[in-house]
Amino acid sequence: METEAGTSKEQNAINTDTNPFEIIEQKILALAQARPKGITDKDLIIEMPELPVKERAQIINKLLSQGHFDLFKQSGSLLYRLKDPSKAKIAKGADNEEKIVYSIIEEAGNKGIWIRDIRFKSNLMPTQLSKILKSLEIKKFIKAVKSVAASKKKVYMLYNLEPDTSVTGGAWYQDQDFEAEFVDVLNQQCYRFLEKKREQMNSCRGGPIMARNVTFASSKEVWKFISDLGISKVKLSVEDLEMILNTLVYDGKVERTLSSDGSILYRAIEPLLDSPGLIKSTCGVCPVRKHCYDIGDVTPTKCQYITEWLE
Amino acid sequence: MSVICRKLCSSILSEHFGQIVQRVAEDLFKHDARPLELICCTTHLPLTKIKEALCVLIKHGFVVYGQTERGLEYSLIHQNILLILRYPKYMFFVKTMCGDESEMILEEVLMSGYITASEVITKTYKKIEQSPSGLQPSVPVLKEKFELLVKNQFLTRSLCTDTVEEKTNEKPDFTLPDFNLAAVIKKIEGDNNSDPGDSKIYWKVNFDRLIQDLRDQIIVSAISRRLDENAGELMRQLLFLMYLRTASWAHTSNPIPLTEIKEAVKKINYPLLAHHLDQYLHLIEEDSSQFLKRVGESGGHFCVNMKEAFEQLAWATLENIVTERFGSKAARIFRLVRDKKYIEQEQIQQLAMIPAKEAKHLTYTLLQENYLQIQEIKKSGVSAAPIKTFFLFHIDLNLVVYMEVQHCYQALYNIMQRREYEISSNKRMIDKQLRMQTLTTNLKEHGATEEQLAEIADLMTPSEKQQLEKVQNTIKKLGITELQIDDTLFLLTMYLRYH
Fold first, then answer.
1. Of the candidates A156, A27, A12, A283, the residue with the CA atom closest to the CA atom of residue B415
2. Which of A62, A250, B306, B330 could pair covalently with B326 via S-S, beta carbons 3.0-4.6 A apart?
């Protein structure tokens, strides 16, 4: 059978010394490269009608075990897709454990995976696993990224991946630290911008609805204002700014509405009420209210807070 | 009713009516409805004193009586006692609506609980005579003012009868009395035998009406704040129109047609409002406060949504309280939870954009102080490991409002206690000043010389004067605070009334 396969492809054979298997392998790989979407058994039969089923299976299995192909199942038939050449690198000079760990990390994508989860999935001993991880890290196949969710938690992901915003925290984090001040400054600036818009209302002479409409600003407008200010070292997206604007909504200073064309509009508003009378008194904000009785250490008659407030 | 509410009521009664009334009321607080003999048994007061006290309490509407199998029983309505705190507000409101004389009439009625028309006019007349305000007392004017009060429904017929059986119609009666004006004048002049002819017709203050007016004021001022003066005025007109067609305390008004709103607005002098009426209606309707709803197919009718309005106002109040007590970041979390209904800790810190540690601290502080509630949701079918449980934060508005009402009670009680303490600890000085004042006025009347007056003024040392001024300021400040706290209390009770 081997000779038959070899002779039938005699004119194409570059080197008769090489194992005829390898020639077929090369051909299949070339075919797979030409079709990035993957090849099926049917494709192989059409391209190489003379190749027996048993041999084809052998070759495919070999290629799969060498990690050249990914195996998929599509509408009932098997689909072979060539692996990313960069990913295939691991195939060389790595043992089985490393490969498994690598594939687990690969699966996690740019969200990364915690060492404990790798251990559960791979069933490897902790010492062995950390050794493998170290070796992969040195070979620059993977990297460890500190997550913002928990400062001590390291997650592993492939070396060439950009970590997800849920891991880095997006624009609001610098080295796992939430930049509260930066957020506060942006919050204030956004409000200042909307507040200015609100002031324009007084000079508007086109009726109350028109006056209200000039106070609206789309998130894009605010984004432009903030970008022009140049207070941000990092580049902010409109979505980032919408997050800031939403904090203003939760501060009760700004209202959010949808415009007819689907964009989100913001405007500064006045609260419905002044601060209530209760908290104008000391008792309204008293920290020891729960201990305040007619007798005892805290009583209204000798209350230090009231005395201070009266003076 | 909570302990603190009881203490507050008790302290109000003791301030306004004295110890005995307070003790009787306290007894009714503790034991609910009970007959006279039992009150006597537990309070150890003489029967006549108890009867007097009950009489006062009934007169002011704090106690009601009813015939049961166990005999005639008395029970306390504590909400009415809390109304006393609001008397100054009612008086101020009536003063702005109907003028100074009306305020004085109202004050007389408030002081006596219920009273006949002729009597209140007589009393007010004498009071104006004595007061240095410069008002000229006149019986016809006072009668007019009294009628104005009745017309505005600030006063109503008191249906208190001497016997239990005579329960007449429960509807408030505003029929104007017909009494002999000449007889009233005669009585003022000192003729005790003249009969004005209304001896059985008593009047009392219609608190329901006044409460509704204060409620409307809140709504109008909220809209004025949110939008502008014109919108506030429009809201006021809408509320007037609401009264014409809706039962008081209904959750939403019956639909008000646009044409009527137009007519009402035309009558008042707000040119800008009349010009942009449609736009203003649109603005109030579209505002997130949801005070107004457009109804009907054609869209020409509007409903005032009182229930919703007070929910929004209660939220605004609570948000303000949280801001003041725990800072603006905590208020952000509070509003966020309100907005999302149920939310996890993780999401809170992400959406509120507060550093994880601070966000956790604030969230759990709010939880500890009962502003937030926590709800556990377990994944079904898995072990009870904590990692499989979701902890969702949410707000139970009614609970928080109720808690804040209690907070108001305590604050009021504390401030009152403090005021009493300030007065009693400086009693000697306050008395001295009073004595000096009477002495000076007496001497002035007898034509004393400047020297003599100066001599009396010197009786008080400068340090004493300073101290006195300080005490008076303190008492004044505490009094103002009481009124402010009551504002909050009023708003929150209004919310509870609608929900």
1. A283
2. B330
Least CB–CB distance from B331: residue in A183, A252, A270: A252
Which of A165, A250, A257 should one mutate to test binding to chain B, selecting the residue with the greatest count of B CBs within 10 A?
A: A250
**ipTM, interface predicted TM-score of the complex:** 0.80
Distance CA B30, CA B6 (A): 9
Q: CB A277 to CB B486 under 8 A?
A: yes
Nearest chain A residue (CA) to B408: A278
Of A157-166, A302-311, B452-461, which has the strongest mean pLDDT? A302-311
Any CB–CB contact under 8 A between B471 and chain A?
no
**pTM for the model:** 0.79
Give the percent of chain A with pLDDT over 70: 86
B100: closest CA of chain A, how far (Å): 27
pLDDT (average), residues B286-297: 84
% of chain B surpassing 90 pLDDT: 30
Contacts 24+ apart (CB under 8 A), B291-295: B291/B219, B291/B222, B291/B223, B291/B235, B292/B235, B292/B238, B293/B252, B295/B255
Q: Which stretch of DSSP H or E encloses residue A145?
A: strand A142-146
Of the candidates B336, B341, B242, the residue with the CA atom closest to the CA atom of residue B291 = B242
Written as six digits, the tokens of B275 are 């010009």
- Radius of gyration of chain A, Cα coordinates, nearest whole angstrom: 33
Q: Count of A–B CB contacts within 8 Å?
A: 147
* Helix (H), strand (E) at residue B216: helix B207-226
In angstroms, the CA A124 to CA A115 distance is 11
CA quadruple A177, A178, A181, A183: dihedral positive or negative?
positive
Q: What integer pLDDT is reported at residue B190 of this predicted model?
A: 65
Tokens of A238: 């409109």
Examine the pLDDT at A282 and tell me if it is beyond 90: no
The encoded tokens of residue B351 equal 């959406």
B336 touches chain A (CB under 8 A): yes
Interface touch B407/A274, C-beta < 8 Å: no
**Distance, CA of B336 to CA of B316 (rounded, Å):** 13
Token pair, residue B42, equals: 């537990």
